Amino acid sequence: MHSNVEIGIIGGSGLEKLLEEKEAIEVETPYGFTPKVFIGEINNRKVAFLARHGVTHAIPPHKINYRANIWALKTLGVKRVLATNAVGAINEKYKPGEFFIPFDLIDFTKTRIQTFFDEGKVIHVDCSNIYCKELREALIVSIKSFKLNFWEGVLACTEGPRFETPAEIKMMKILGCDAVGMTGAPEAFLAREAGLCYASLGFISNMAAGLQNRLTASEVFKTAQKILPYIKLILNEAIKKIPEKRMCECIKSLEEAEI
User: Fold this and answer.
1) Cis omega (within 30 of 0) on the bond before 161?
2) Looking at the 3D structure of the chain, how many domains does it have?
3) What is the reported pTM?
4) Which of 16, 104, 152, 246 suits 136 as a labelling partner, its CA being 20 to 30 A distant?
5) Which residues of the chain have pLDDT under 70?
């Protein structure tokens, strides 16, 4: 029924309004049910939107069923995934309200299941380009068309739900991280294992621990609400710019990966 859905968006609450006429479905996977998935059209392309934390934002980052979410999108026919992520700035050049497009990822999570390949085949997927170059380019061109400030850099993903300590942020900075969030992994790795193109549209919601006096969830939420209209504009424009045919190497992610 929904096999011609080509683009998936994984994001925060409120983004389902991107889709004007939409159908809400729940998808059963081998890993359990997903939150509601909204199916609709953007610029004449069929799109599935999945609220990562659930429609009421009730699922904390360490409890998200990342495997079910990616599996469901693939089952619906999705080949490209655009994710939105709130991130804290480690790089002191960055400012809240600006956008961040990661080109690499360091995973500091501890308890999350990282793979679809727990048993059976032994698979070592290549993560040299964890973020799809085609999707990143579509996002960047879109941001530039609205003359908005953005940065490219390395994203750190932490376990949550607590914020990081100043010492942890200092460590991440030494290791080359530019921004930190709680939802980038294992989502990006699972998309890679599923042969999907994946890119993240991050927005700076705050300066990371030690770079401002204190961190609050309400501050992150307020920044997200302010920037939501721009996120919608960027995603709309990016979907226009995504080529019909995949010319990137994401499709080959599992080639020669099996032992």
Assistant:
1) yes
2) 1
3) 0.95
4) 16
5) 1-3, 13-14, 16
